[in-house]
Amino acid sequence: xxxxxxxxxxxxxxxxxxxxxxxxxxxxxxxxxxxxxxxxxxxxxxxxxxxxxxxxxxxxxxxxxxxxxxxxxxxxxxx
Length: 79
Description:
It contains 4 helices and 2 strands. It is mostly helical and 79 residues long.
């Protein structure tokens, strides 16, 4: 049983995260709006959003920084 859960953690979860990242809006401006809406309506922080949705936080921040958007934790949004 343990080997199955280890396999799940090492193989299945990373594939699910990658698939979810692929399904996010690819246009950075639409992604910006999408993420800010999620943060406003459902999540108290970017960390919680990323953990819950299986989003790679560093990749998200990098992508939004290409359009000059930075996360403000105090306001819980990208600006």
